[in-house]
Fold these 2 entries.
Entry 1:
Amino acid sequence: MQKYETVIGLEVHVEMATESKIFCSCSAKFGGEQNEHVCPACCGMPGMLPVTNRHAIELAVKAGFMLNCKINQYTTFDKKSYYYPDLPCAYQITQINHPICTNGLVSLKTSQGPRDIRIKQIHMEEDAGKLVHSGNSSFVDFNRTSVPLIEIVTQPDFRSAEEVVTYLNKLKSMFRSGGISECEEGAMRCDVNISVRPVGSTEFGVRTEIKNMASFEAIERAIKYESQRHMDALEYEIEELVQETRRFDDVSGKTFAMRNKETEADYRYFPDANLMPIIIDDAWLEEIKANKPVAVDEKAEQYREYGISEKEIDMLISNH
Ligand code: ADP
Ligand code: MG
Ligand code: ZN
C-alpha cells in the first residue's frame, strides 16, 4: 500500500504557428540568420508601439475551444517586469488580469482508467530571445523575441508521470491537427510543479517547480526523481522541503535548486497601456468556432462508430 501521493500541476508554453510575431510584423518562422527577424519594436527601441496580431488571438481562442474552456470576450495584456539580457524591454507582455481562456477540461485515458484534468487558464504572451555563449563572450539573438506563445495552466490534478505524459501527447496531437502549433522540439516547453502528501490527506504539501523542460522523456524522469526526493524528505526527515524553482540535469537524472520562487510582487505586473483591450465580439467568436477542427475526442467517437478498435483509434489520432 502506497503511503504517499504525488500531486502535479503543469504550465505548458506552446509557440503558435503564426506567420508573424505577436506585436510586430517580423517573421515568426523558426531559424534564419541570427537577428534576421527583428525590427525596432521587438528589439524594444524607445517610442515603438506594439500592435496585436489578430491570428494569434484566433489561435489562442481555438486552443481554448479544444480544451473546453470558457472564452473571455474581454481580454487584456499586462507587463511582467524582470531584467535579463534576452528581454530587450525588461518586461514581457503577458496576461494576468484577464486571460483569454479560463476553466477548461481535458479527459485522459490512462492505464488506471479515465482521468479529468482541469485547465485553470490559457493566456497569451511573447517569447524571449536567446543567449548564445562563445568563449568569454555572450551574444543575444532576438529572432524568437515576441514570437506568440500560449501558456496552458492546469489545476494540480495529475497524480503520476504517466498521466502527465498522456496529457502532453494529447495536447501535441490536438495542437497539430488544429494548426495551433507544429509542436516541434523546443516549441512546447513545460514547467512541472510537484508536491507530495500522505495518501488520504486533503491538504497539499510544499511544492517545487522544475522549469523549462522540452523532452517528454526527461519530464517523466524528472517527475519520478523529484517525487521520490519529496517522499524521502517526508519519510526520513533528511532535508527540509522549501518552495523553490529547480532544474533537471539530464546527465545525472537529478534536480538542483535554482532559486527561491519569486512572488507575484517581484514581477511588478501592471496593465500594458500601449495595448488596447481585445474585445472578441460574438460574430468573431462564431467565425473562429466555425473554423475549429473536429476535436480529438469527437474524432475518436466517429472512428468508434465506424467500428475501429481503440488501439487503432489511438494510432490514427496520434499520427495525425
Ligand atoms: P503561481 O502563481 O506560483 O504560478 P499557480 O497557483 O498559478 O501558482 O500554480 C502554478 C502551477 O502550480 C499550476 O499548474 C498549479 O496546478 C500547480 N500547483 C499549485 N499548487 C501545487 C501543489 N501543491 N502541488 C503541485 N502543483 C501545484
Ligand atoms: Mg507559475
Ligand atoms: Zn519585430
Entry 2:
Amino acid sequence: MKLTVINALVVFCWCSLRIFALPDDIFIGGLFNSHDEEQALAFQYAVESVNADKLLLPRSRLHGRIVNLTSDDSYHAAKRVCSLLLDGVAAIFGPQTDNTANHVQSICDAMEVPHIETRWNVNEVRNSYSINLHPYPPSLSRAYRDILEKLQWTHFVILYENNESLVRVQSLMKNASWNFVLRKLDESGDYRPMLKEIRLSPINNIVIDVSRDKIYEVFRQGALVGLMTDYYLYFVTNLDLYLINLEPFSESGANITGIQLVDPQDGDVQRLVEEFKRGELRYGHSLPMDYMISTDAALIYDSVELFASALTALEYSHQVDISKLYCEGDKTWQHGTSLINYMKMVPLKGISGLLKFNDDGFRADFELDILEMDKGLLKKVGRWTQRGGANFTRSWAETVQVKEKNLRNKTLIVCIALTKPYTMEKQSTEMLTGNDKYEGFCIDLVKKIAELEGFKVKFMVTPDGMYGNIDNKTGEWNGIVKQLLDQKADLGIVDFTITYQREEAVDFTMPFMNLGISIIYKKPQKKSPSLFSFMSPFSVDVWIYMATAYLGVSVLLFILARIAPNEWDNPHPCIQDPDELENSISLSNAFWFTIGSLMQQGSDIAPKAVSTRVVAGIWWFFTLIMISSYTANLAAFLTVERMDSPIESADDLAKQTKIKYGCKMGGSTYSFFQESNIPTYKKMWQAMSTASPSVFTESNDKGVERVQKSGGMYAFLMESVSIEYEVERKCDLMQIGGLLDSKSYGIALPPGSPHTSIISGAILKLKESGELHKLKERWWKGKTPCQSEASATKSSGAAELGLANVGGVFVVLIGGMAIAGLMAICEFMWNARELATDESASFCDELSSEVRFILKCSGNTKPVRKKTPSTPEEPLFTYGSYGANYGYSQRKQ
Ligand code: GLU
C-alpha cells in the first residue's frame, strides 16, 4: 500500500513535470551579417551563459543556430529563415539590415514565431510577433534634444552621414528657436573641405550623427583643419562613443559630449567582457586585449537572456513543444504569442539597462549616461531618463575645476597691439626674442594671470595694428577681434574697450580697468605778470566800490564833523575866551584822514565827536578787513601760477570752431561720438567728421603729438587712463574737464572660449589682492617728470576776490556811517536845545541858525556865541561840551 502511494506520487510529479515543460533542446536562430562577427559571438555567449545559469531554463538546453548573411539579399535571408523554421526554432534573432529584417519579420509574423531584433528601427508600429531591444528612435531623439537644451546650444551644425541620421536628429530640427546647419559627410572619405567650411563659420557647436567607424575619422580630420580646439563643442549621438579611442584628442581642448546605453564601467558588463575574452578561442575569434562590448552586441546578449527568462516563465504555464514549420504551409507555432507576451511583460535587468517594453513593443524606461571627454577619457557627467530628461550631476565648481585642469600647462596665444603703456616693445641694446620683446601693463597682467592659473603665454602682435572694428559692408572684423575669431589667438589684450558691438562678436572677461573719455589739451602758458597785477586781488567792481566808499566816508566825515559841536574847538588853547572855534576836519582833512587809515598810515587828525569817531572806527574796521583780504590774496596771486585755458569742458569745445579736436580713428572713442545721440556730442561728431584736414589720428600717440605741436589749436579726445599716463610724462599737457562716459577695458577671448570664467576669476583675484593697483602704479607713476606740476595744476588757482567775498565789509561800513549820521543829528539837536534855553530863544530859531551855518560849508572857524550874564558872577554860557570842558565859553553874538 505504502509503495502504491509513493508510486502514485512519483507518477503525479512526473506527469506534472511532463505537462508543464519545455523540450530538452530548444533551438533559436540568429541571422547576422557576415561583418557583424561580434554580434554572432555575443549571441553564442548569451546562449552559453543561459545554459550555464541554473535558474534559467533549468531542464532544457538552448542551441543557437547562426546564419551568416553575406549580402543584403532578402530572398536569400527568407530562404535561410524558412530552413531554420523547418528545423524547429523557438525564435529568430536579427538580422540588422532594414531590408532583410523586414522580410524576416513578415515570415515570423506569418508563422507566429517570435522575431527578436536589436536594430535601429524607426517604424512606428511593431508587428505582433516582433520585439526590439533597441531604444525607440523618437525617444532617443528626444534625449538628444533634452541634452542640447541643457547644454544651452542654440546654434549648431549637424554633421550627418545618411538619411537615416536625419530621422534620428529630427527632433533637433523641429525646435524653432534653434538655428542649425546640416552638413553631410562626403562619401569620398575626405571630410576636410566640409570641416574647413565649418571652421570658417561662426558656429562652434557640432552635432555628430555618424556611424561608429567614422567618428574617429571625423575628429582626426577635424583636428587637421583646426576644428579640435578649445572653442569647439561636439555632441555625438552614437551610443558606441565609449568604444572610440579619444586619447589622441585629449590635449586638443575640444569638448566632446556623448551618451551611452551600456556602461563599460558596470561590474556586470566588465564580467561579461572578461568571459568573452576567456572563451574566445572556442569560437575561433580573437578579441583585442582592450576589447569592450558594443551596444549592438550587448543588446543581442540581453535579447537572448530576455528570451530565456520569458521561456522559463512560459514553462510554468504551458507544455511547450517546438514544431517544425513550413513557410509554405498553414501551420503556425501556437506558443509564439504567449512567448512574445512574456517577453514584453517580464522586466529584466540586462547589461543595457532595464529591459522593459510598452504594449506597442517599444522599449520603455531606458536610461542613458551623459558623457564628457576629460583628458581623453569619457566621464559620466549626467543621466538622461525618459521621465526626468537630462540631468547633469556635475556641479559648477567641478566644471570650473575641469576647465582649470584643462588650461594648466597649455600655451595660449595672446594677441596684442602696440600701445603705450599697455603693450610696448622693450627698448634694449640686446636682440630680444619671444615674449621678452614686449613689456607694459597688459603684458605684466597677462603674465600674472598665467602664473596664477598655471598656463603659458606667447605674445603675437596683430598684423594690422588695429583693435577690432567691423566693416559694415562685408561684416568682417579686423585687428585683434579678427585674430580671435579666426582662432589664431586665444586672448586679446591692450587698452581694449568693452563695447556692445565687440561683445557680440567675442567674449570679454571682467574689466581690469575703468575709465571714460576725456580731453587732453595743451597746458596754457604762464601769463607774464602784468603791470597792474597788484590790482588782481580784487575784482574791478570791488575797486570801484572801494573808491566810492572812500569818497562817501570822507564827505560824510566832513559833514558830521561840521554837525557835531564837539568838533568845534578852540584854535588857540592859550586864549581863554576865543572869539571863534575851529573844526579840524575840513573836507581836505577828511579825505586825508580816510586815505591815511586806508593806507594803514594814520594822520594827526583825530575825530572828537561821537559821530565822527563812529565813522572813523567803522572806516578803520573796513580798511582792516579790506587790507587783510588784499594782502592775503595778493600773496596767493604772486605765488600761484594762474593759467587761463580757453576750454574747460567738452561743451566749450563744441561751442567754438577755432580750436580743432579729434580722436583715434576707428577706436571706441570714435564709435562713441559716431553713435551718440546727445546734442553736444552729435555736434562734436559733426565738426570732427567734416573737418579738413582730418582731425582723426592713427593712434593715441599721434593725437598727443598733434596736441603738443598745435600750439593750443588742437584738442584730443582720449580715454582718461591714457590721458593720465600722458600728462604724467608730458608736462605741457593736461586733462580738460571730467569724463564724458564710463566704460572699461577687458581681455577678449574667442566666442564660447572655455577660459573666460577662469581668466575673469584671476582678474578678480588680482584686483582684490591689490596686485592690479600695484601694476597700474608701476606703469603710470614711477619717476615721472611732471608729478609736481600736475599736482600744482590740480590745485585750484587763486582767484580775485569778488564783491561776494568782501560785500559784508561794505555793509558794515554803510551801517556805521548811518549810526554816525544819527548820532551827529542827536548831538546837533541837543546843542541847539541848550543854546535856545541859554539864550531864551526858540529852539527852532537856534536850530535854523545852526543849520544855516553848517550849510555854508566854508570856513573852519565858527564865532563863539557868548552868553550875556544877567549878573557879573553869572558863569559864561558854554557853546559846546568841548568848550565847556576846556573852560571856553561862548557868548551869543
Ligand atoms: N580703447 C580704444 C578701443 O578699444 C582705443 C582708444 C580710443 O578709441 O580712444 O578702441
